[in-house]
Design a protein that fits this description.
Hypothetical protein af1432; 11 helices; mainly alpha; binds fe (ii) ion; about 240 residues; about 60% helix; 2 domains
Length: about 240
């Protein structure tokens, strides 16, 4: 009968299923109660969605605040995390990654330098070239960052962006010396975006390049420092004028 059929539909997960039984009998009353129950469940689902949405926004807000704190540590890189994040998301979308992966890229790019919180300001802000020893110390920031995030279970997919954003395509990067496809894609994306922003903003010992020049520089180092496919993507985005704000 109709009520039983509706109940089966409902049980399969279609919570909008409604029984249409017009009768004053007990069955009719049952159908009405049943419909009220469905409405309640629908309402709960709506509220759950809203709560999840709010949670997501709070989470991203917290990540952005943390990214701003990282940028604040290093006065030369103000706004760096935001720009790296914007570039990274553009690259991820151009690669047609799914929404979850794009989101991971967004969070990973915002947090990539979180390990700098554990680096001494005197070295982070040193206006001259670092000594070899200081450089070796500075190079610990990806692993420091990865250990900071390690206890957070939900950061598992993000962590490779933090740990491996200074690897090079040819295997001569750090900390692990991973090569080509061994480097997680999320880390390769952040690496190219990070470098592109470093090239196009003023730094203590380097004046900023134009986007045009930076793309040319990326192309020179394509296949040695950077993933050739990603260099191509950056070049395409630049050609279309999508890298500018
Ligand atoms: Fe870094």
């Amino acid at each position: 009968n109709q009520l039983a059929e509706t109940a089966r539909t409902f049980a399969r997960g279609d919570f909008a299923a409604r029984a249409d039984v017009r009768s004053h009998s007990e069955i009719g009353e049952l159908a009405e109660t049943y419909n009220r129950m469905s409405d309640q469940i629908q309402d709960h689902i709506k509220r759950l969605h809203a709560a999840a949405q709010e949670n997501q926004e709070l989470f991203l807000g917290t990540i952005k605040a943390l990214a701003a704190a990282i940028d604040e540590k290093d006065p030369y890189t103000r706004g760096h995390s935001d720009r790296v994040s914007r570039f990274s998301v553009l690259i991820a979308k151009e690669l047609r990654l799914g929404p979850r992966e794009v989101r991971n890229v967004e969070i990973g790019s915002l947090l990539h330098d979180v390990g700098k919180i554990g680096i001494d300001d005197r070295i982070l802000r040193k206006p001259s070239v670092l000594t070899e020893e200081e450089y070796r110390y500075m190079k610990q920031h990806p692993e420091k960052g990865a250990s900071m995030l390690a206890p957070i279970k939900n950061m598992k997919e993000i962590n490779p962006a933090v740990k491996h954003h200074h690897e090079r395509w040819d295997g001569r990067g750090y900390p692990s010396g991973l090569k080509a496809d061994e480097i997680p894609l999320i880390a390769r994306i952040v690496n190219v975006a990070d470098t592109f922003d470093a090239m196009t903003t003023n730094r203590p010992y380097q004046k900023s390049m134009s986007y045009e020049k930076a793309v040319a520089r990326l192309k020179e180092l394509s296949g040695t420092a950077y993933d050739p496919k990603l260099v191509e993507v950056v070049a395409t985005l630049h050609r279309r004028g999508e890298l500018k704000d």
